[in-house]
Amino acid sequence: MTNDLERRVPEHNSHAIPGFTATYNCVDLLYFEETPDVNSAIAREKQLKKWSRSKKIDLIRTINPEMKDLFGQG
Q1: Which of 36, 27, 39, 41 is nearest to 69 (CA)?
Q2: In the prediction, which pLDDT does 74 show?
């Protein structure tokens, strides 16, 4: 979750923040959602974390069928 995607993606790409993305070298932005407030974002993040990997991939493919990096597009 972030309130500044333009700042956050480069942090992930440079592995400046320890955690999942640094450990598994995740650098492509494949999916994101905007929410009206921080509480909605937290609730959605918790919901998605409970999903299976295949269900998450299906969700990503609904907006990004080719699994391309979305950062900087738009």
Answers
A1: 27
A2: 44
